[in-house]
């Protein structure tokens, strides 16, 4: 359903809008928050995911820092049967399904005003910038002492800059994942896996076309790849960009 919501946003030309909407006739109330959260993380914009439940349009919203979702909804109570939430999340039901398009247009105007001073460029928080030579079994063993990771104990996210691409190999069905071989300041080649980065709908930069010798920056988690009794460290890519400085 997240895939369908993402495709809907693209098909309806919303990607440059200050707030994004997705609607599914069969999206139950219990999954709307998940859809909104995933899309908010991907696009780094406020998102409303909505569905038809018992003849009533219900919705769940997720916001970004700086845009107060619930205070914005409070300025337009005429649309709601009920609503509630806090600055970063909301839930609501519309008085009438025929109000949907007018509601979306009104909220779009309010979101444009409410986000005009906010940087909506997708952002991630790096815990530490490292040299790849520092990513070793000693570091991995140390990280294991802090498991389990989750919402209240997020897995450390590392960054490495100015890496050299050695090779790129699409893997998985339709090549939606990428295995990228890289090196840093030494001749040691490291393996990474970039899940979903071969999907040009999700990643329009088309990282499949990376050429050997290209320089990139990576954000990644440290993991282990095990096969046939073998174990090797693996970098799980969370983001890629071209270097700000060469």
From TrEMBL:
Domain RecJ OB, chain residue ranges per copy: 126-239
GO molecular function terms noted in the UniProt entry: hydrolase activity; nucleic acid binding
State a single Pfam family of this protein.
Answer: RecJ_OB
Q: Where is the DHHA1 domain?
A: 17-107
UniProt signal peptide? none
Entry's InterPro entries? DHH_sf, DHHA1_dom, RecJ_OB, SSDNA_exonuclease_RecJ
Which keywords, in A-to-Z order, does the entry hold?
Hydrolase
Write the protein's name: RecJ OB domain-containing protein
């Amino acid at each position: 359903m997240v895939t369908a919501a993402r495709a809907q946003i693209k098909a309806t030309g919303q990607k440059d809008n200050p707030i994004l909407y997705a609607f599914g006739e069969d999206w139950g109330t219990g999954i709307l928050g998940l859809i909104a959260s995933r899309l908010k993380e991907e696009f780094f914009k406020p998102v409303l995911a909505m569905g038809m439940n018992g003849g009533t349009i219900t919705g769940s919203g997720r916001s970004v820092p700086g845009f107060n979702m619930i205070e914005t909804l409070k300025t337009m109570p005429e649309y709601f049967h009920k609503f509630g939430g806090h600055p970063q999340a909301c839930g609501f039901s519309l008085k009438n399904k025929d109000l949907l398009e007018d509601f979306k247009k009104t909220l779009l105007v309010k979101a444009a005003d409410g986000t005009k001073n906010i940087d909506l460029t997708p952002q991630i928080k790096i815990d530490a910038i490292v040299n790849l030579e520092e990513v070793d079994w000693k570091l991995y063993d140390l990280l294991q002492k802090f498991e389990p990771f989750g919402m209240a104990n997020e897995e450390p996210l590392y960054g490495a800059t100015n890496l050299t691409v050695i090779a790129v190999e699409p893997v998985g069905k339709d090549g939606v994942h990428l295995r990228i071989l890289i090196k840093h300041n030494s001749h040691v080649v490291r393996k990474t896996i970039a899940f979903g980065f071969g999907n040009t709908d999700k990643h329009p930069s088309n990282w499949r076309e990376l050429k050997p010798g290209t320089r990139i920056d990576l954000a990644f988690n440290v993991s282990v790849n095990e096969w046939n009794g073998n174990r090797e460290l693996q970098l799980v890519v969370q983001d890629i960009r071209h270097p700000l400085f060469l």
